[in-house]
Amino acid sequence: MTSRLRATTAVLLILWIGWFARSAEATDLKNTIRNLYGIQGIHVEPSPFFPVETSFQASSLQGLDGLNSQLTSAIGVPSFNSSVTGFTFDIERGIPVRTTESLGPMLTERATTMGISKLNVAGTYTRVSFTRLDGKNLNNLQLTFHRNDVNEGCDPSIPQSLARCDTIRARLKVDLSEDIFAFIATYGLTSVWDVGLVVPLTHIRLFAKASAGIFHVDTLGVTKPGTTQIGNLPIHQFGPNSTPPDASGGGEETGLGDIILRTKYNFLRNSGGLTPDLAFLFEVKLPTGDAKRLLGTGGTNLAGLLIASKTYGRWLTPHVNVGYEINTKELEQNTIRYALGFDARLLSGLSFDADVIGRQKPEGNGTGDHTVDLSLGVKWNPLNSLIFRANVQIPLDKNSGLRADFIPTIGVEYLF
Amino acid sequence: MSLLTTRTASLIFAACVIVGAIVHSSTPAEAAKIIALKSADVDVYNEALEGFKSVLQESAIVEYDMEGDLQKGKKFLARLKSGPRPDLILAVGIWALQVVLEEIQDIPVVFAMVLNPTAVIRQEVRNVTGASMNVPNEQQIALLKKVSPQVRRIGVIYDPSQTGFLVKQAERIAKDQGLRLVTKAITSPKDSFAAIDAMQDEIDALWILPDLTVLAPESVQYMLLFSFRHKIPVLGLSENQARMGTLLSLSFESGWDIGSQAAELANGILSGRSVEEIPFTTARKVRLTVNLKTAGKLGVHIPKELLDRAAVVIR
Question: CA-to-CA distance for A307 and A319, rounded, in angstroms?
Fold first, then answer.
C-alpha cells in the first residue's frame, strides 16, 4: 500500500507541475517600476525657447531601472526542508530509537537523513509581504532625477546655470507581496542518502504608484518646489504634452516558481565523543518560474552546503549549515549561506526550533549584500507520521535588502 | 486521504500481498512459506533480513514493516490468522517479537536481533526460538581475563528483573574460569551510583551488562569516572561506549550474521525439528573495540593477541 501511495503521490505531483507550467503566459510584471513613466522615461513640457523636453529622460530611466533591479533581484523563494523522521538503532539497548523525538528545524538542515525507502511529503504556505528596501519604507520611496547636463555645473551665484540644478523628485508607493504554496517531497535512496524536490506555486502581487514634482535651487542655494524661471518663463514643467506626473502600474501573477532539486548525503554518523554528524547537501534551483512574470529568477542556481549536527540527550540538536550558492545568470548574486541554530523537543511530539540564517553576497550590488534573519518554528506530531509545522522568519537587520517585517509559514507533512 | 483510510487501505493491501504470496507459493515444490515481521526500518534489521534470506533462498518470504507501531503489527497478525497459515514467522527486533508473542501461539516463531530474549519470553512459551544479539558470556569473561592476570574479581551491576538470568549464568562461567563475579543488584537507575561506589575495593574490572536499568547515560558516565579514578578497566557493549572511555567493548559483528543464524534455526524447524528442542543462540561472530587512550590512562598493557583481534583500535 505504501508503494501505491508513493506512486499516486508522484503522479499527482507530475500533473500538478504540468498544469501550472501550461498556464504560463508572458507578461512583464518584472519591469513594472522601470515602465511606470513609459519606456521613454520622463519628458517635461516642451519649451519654445529651450530644448529641455528630454533633459530628465536618461536620469529617470536609469533611476527607475535601478530601483526595479533592486526590488526584483531580491525577490526569492525561501528555503524549505523536510523533517527528519524514522529510526536509528541503539545497539546498547537493542532497540530502534525514533529520530522524531526532536522533529528537526524547518528552514535549515540537520545532518541526519530519513532512512531507506522513506518518502516524506509536505505542503507549506508562506506569506511574504515586503515592507522595506535597504531600510526605506516601500510606501514612501523617493527617487531624484537630474538633468543630463547637471555635470556642467549649477552654481547658484550664476543665474544662467541655475536651471541645470532643477530636479524631478518622484515619490513611490510599492505594494509587493508573495504567497507561496510549496510541495516538498524527500525520498531516502539509502539509509544515508536522500533526494528531494520542492515545487513552489507562487502568487505574486506588485503594484506601484508614483508622483513626480519639479524642484529648483534658489540663489541662496536652497532647494524649493517648482522650477527655475527666467523672467516669468518656467523652464521645466509638467503639462499636456509632457509625461503625466502621476503614474501607476503593476499586476498579479500566479504560476509555477523555480523548482528545486536537492540531495543530501550523510557521510558521518554516530561517531561518538564530540564529533558531530556530518552531511553534504547539493541543491539545484531550476529556472522553471517565468522571470518576466516575477515567478522565478530566470537563472539556474547551484548550491552546496556542509551540515553538522549532534543530538544531546535525545531532545536537543544544535546544527550548523555553511555553504555557497552560485547564480549562473548573475554572478554578483552568488551567495555565502550560513545558519546556526538548534531544534529541541519541548513535549512529547512537540518540537521547537530557532535559527539565525544569514546570506552574504561577496560581489553584491549593494542591495541586501548581507541579510540576517531569525527563524522560530514549532512542529507538532499528533500521530505517528503526521507533522504540522509553523514558522516565522524575522529580519534581524531591516536596513539590508528587500525585507518583510516577518514571514509566516505553515505546513503539514506526512512520512510514508 | 485520511490517516484512518490510509491505515485501513494499508492493512487490506498487506493482507492481499500475504494471501497472494502464500497462494502463489503453493507450487508443487512446496517452498516453505515464511512471514517476516520487522520492528522498524533500520539498517541493522534490514541486514538481518538479508542474511536470513541468503540462507533460505528457496522459501517464499513475505516481509512486513511495523514501522515501530505495535498496534500496526498486531493488526497485521490478526489478519494473518484469518488467511492461509504460514509455516514459520520470523520476528526481527524486540517489538516484532513482543507482538508475535501476544498474537501467535500455534505457529513456529524464530526471532532475530533481540537483546535479552529471556526477559520477554515466558518459560511456558513453546513455539519460539531465535538468534539473540547478546554476546556470549563466556567470551566476555575470557576477554577480561586476557587483559590482565590481575583481574580476579569482575564487578557487575544489574537489575534482577532485566538481566538476572545472565548474571546467574555468568557466575557459573566465571567460577569455571577461576574468577569471581561481584554483583550488585539494583531496581532503579538512581541506585547505580551507590552500587558503583560500594565496589571500590572489591573489584579488578567492571563489566557493563545490556541492562536497561543500568544503561542510563548518567550511570554509564559514572562508571567511566569510577574507572579512571580507581584505574579499573571497563568492558562495554558497543564501539560507542569504547569511544566514550571503556577500555574494551564487545558487540555482535553484524545484523547479516545474526539473520543467517536465525535462518539456520528456521531451517531446522522446517526440516521437522521441534521448536522446543532448539535453544536460543547468541552472536557467533563478535566485534572487539580497544581504546588505547584509556589503556594508557589506566596503565594497562593490552596484549598483542587482543590488538590483532580488534576490529577497531582507538588510538
Answer: 7
Per-residue cell: B87: 509455516
Nearest-angstrom CA–CA distance, A363 and B78: 65
Gap between the Cα atoms of B98 and B91, Å rounded: 9
Angstrom distance (rounded) from CA A286 to CA A120: 21
Q: How many Cα atoms are found within 13 Å in the side-chain-facing hemisphere of B266?
A: 34
In this complex, the residue of A95, A117, A272 whose CB is nearest that of residue B240 is A272
Burial of B33 (0-12, 13-18, 19+ CB in 10 A): buried
Q: Which grid coordinates are listed for A340?
A: 546556526
Nearest to A94 among B133, B239, B243 (CB): B133
Nearest to B241 among A92, A383, A385 (CB): A92
**Total domains present in chain A:** 1
Domain that holds residue A224: 2-415
Judged by DSSP in three states, B249 sits in strand
- Return d(Cα A30, Cα A71) in angstroms, integer: 9
Better-scored residue on pLDDT, B98 or A296: B98
Question: Are B77 and B185 within one domain?
Answer: no
Q: Give the residue on A whose Cα is nearest the Cα of B93.
A: A95
Check the CA dihedral A237-A243-A248-A253 and report its sign: negative
Helix (H, G, I), strand (E, B) or coil at A285: strand
**Is the backbone of residue A294 left (phi > 0), alpha (psi -120 to 50) or beta?**
left
Residue B252 has pLDDT above 70, yes or no: yes
Please report the pLDDT score of residue A82 as a whole number: 54
Contacts of B67 in chain A (CB under 8 A): 384-385
CA atoms within 13 A on the CB side of A179: 6
Whether chain A has a CB inside 8 Å of the CB on B16: the answer is no
How many Cβ atoms from other residues are within 10 Å of residue B30's Cβ? 10
Cβ within 8 Å, pair A91-B251: yes
Report d(CA A190, CA B202) in Å as an integer.
49
**Cα separation of B232 and A236, whole Å?**
95
Q: Are B115 and B177 members of one domain?
A: no
Asked if A5's CB is within 8 angstroms of B67's CB, the reply is: no
- Which of B13, B40, B240 is opposite residue A270, by nearest beta carbon? B240
The 10s digit of each residue's pLDDT in A310-327 is 877 667 889 999 999 998
pLDDT of residue A384: 65
What is the number of other CB atoms lying within 10 angstroms of the CB of residue B31? 17
User: Is there a single domain that holds both residue B217 and residue B293?
Assistant: yes
Band of pLDDT at residue A223, cut at 50, 70 and 90:
confident
- Give contacts of B39 with chain A, Cβ < 8 Å: 96
Containing structural domain, residue B211: 137-252+286-314
Contact, B83 vs B20, CB < 8 A? Answer: no
On chain A, the residues whose CB falls within 8 A of the CB of B41 are: 86-87, 115-118
Please report, for the domain that includes residue B127, its CATH number.
Answer: 3.40.50.2300
Residues contacting residue B120 through CB under 8 Å, at least 6 positions apart: B94, B97, B98, B101, B114
Whether chain A has a CB inside 8 Å of the CB on B237: the answer is yes
C-beta of residue A387 within 8 angstroms of C-beta of residue A381: yes
Decide if B68 and A96 are in contact by the 8 Å CB cutoff: yes
In one-letter notation, the amino acid at residue A94 is G
Q: What is the ipTM of this complex?
A: 0.75
Residues 6+ positions from A239 with CB-CB distance below 8 Å: A45
CA-CA-CA-CA dihedral for B136, B138, B141, B143, to nearest 10: -80
CB count in 10 Å sphere of residue A83: 27
Q: How far apart are CA A254 and CA A203, in angstroms?
A: 4
CATH number at residue A107: 2.40.160.40
Q: Does one domain contain both B13 and B141?
A: no
